[in-house]
Write a structure and sequence with these properties.
The structure holds 2 protein chains of 2 kinds. Chain A is mainly β. Classes of the chains: A mainly beta, B mainly beta.
C-alpha cells in the first residue's frame, strides 16, 4: 500500500490525451512539491516533472503537471507509442520524514 | 557530463551484510543531497535513504531504519549504503540518484542500478 495513490493502469490511442492521477495527504502532496518520473522497460527512471508542473530541459511539452490540494496529475497529450512506460509520482512526507512514491501507473498505447 | 555509477551488488545470505557504493562525476558532489532508491523485481520504486549535501542529515525509510546506513564522502565523490540484517524482501535493484540542495525527491540523474539478491 503506497502512501501516494495512483491508478495501476492507463491507456490511450496515438494522438489522444491521457491523465494520470496521484492522490496523497496533507503531509506530503498537500504541502510539498510533487515530482513525476517515467520508467521505460529495463531502464532507470527519468525525471519528467518537478515542483508540480516544471519540465526539465529536453522533456517535450506534451507532458504537463498540475496540482490541486492533495492531488496531482500528469497529462500526456498527443500520445505516442514511445510513451508506453511506467509513471511514478513522488513527494517528501513531513510526517514520515522521507520520500514517498506512488505505486506506479503502467501506460499502454493501444 | 553527470555520471553516477553504482557497484557492490551481489548475492548475500539472509542476515548478512553488504555495502553499495555510488561514484559520482561531472558535478560538484558536495552541493547535492544524494538518495538511494530501490526496485524489487517486477515492483514499483521504493525510496530507501537520503543524505544531505554536507552529510550532516540522514533520513531512512521505515523498512530499513536501524539496518541500513547511508554516508557521503565529499572528498572522494562517493555515496555509500551499508546494509545489514538483510532480508529476502531487500532483494532489489538499488539506484543512487542525485537530489537537489534540499531533501526533496528531485532526482535529475540516476545511476544504472546494482542488483542485490538476498537468498540462501
Amino acid at each position: 500500500q503506497s502512501v501516494l495513490t495512483q491508478p495501476p493502469s492507463a491507456s490511450g490511442t496515438p494522438g489522444q490525451r491521457v491523465t494520470i492521477s496521484c492522490s496523497g495527504s496533507s503531509s506530503n502532496s498537500g504541502t510539498n512539491y510533487v515530482y513525476w518520473y517515467q520508467q521505460l522497460p529495463g531502464t532507470a527512471p527519468k525525471l519528467l516533472i518537478y515542483r508540480n508542473y516544471q519540465r526539465p530541459s529536453g522533456v517535450p511539452d506534451r507532458f504537463s503537471g498540475s496540482k490541486s490540494g492533495t492531488s496531482a496529475s500528469l497529462a500526456i497529450s498527443g500520445l505516442r507509442s514511445e510513451d508506453e512506460a511506467d509513471y511514478y509520482c513522488a513527494a517528501w512526507d513531513d510526517s514520515l520524514s522521507g520520500v514517498v512514491f506512488g505505486g506506479g501507473t503502467k501506460l499502454t498505447v493501444l | 557530463q553527470v555520471q553516477l555509477v553504482e557497484s557492490g551488488g551481489g548475492v548475500v545470505q539472509p542476515g548478512g551484510s553488504l555495502t553499495l557504493s555510488c561514484t559520482a562525476s561531472g558535478f560538484t558532489f558536495s552541493s547535492y543531497a544524494m538518495h538511494w532508491v530501490r526496485q524489487a523485481p517486477g515492483k514499483g520504486l521504493e525510496w530507501v535513504a537520503v543524505v544531505s549535501y554536507d552529510g550532516g542529515n540522514k533520513y531512512y525509510a521505515g523498512s530499513v531504519k536501524g539496518r541500513f546506513t547511508v554516508s557521503k564522502d565529499n572528498s572522494k565523490n562517493t555515496l555509500s549504503l551499508q546494509m545489514g540484517s538483510l532480508r529476502a524482501e531487500d532483494t532489489a535493484v538499488y539506484y543512487c540518484a542525485r537530489g537537489d540542495s534540499s531533501l526533496r525527491p528531485h532526482f535529475d540523474y540516476w545511476g544504472q542500478g546494482t542488483l542485490v539478491t538476498v537468498s540462501s
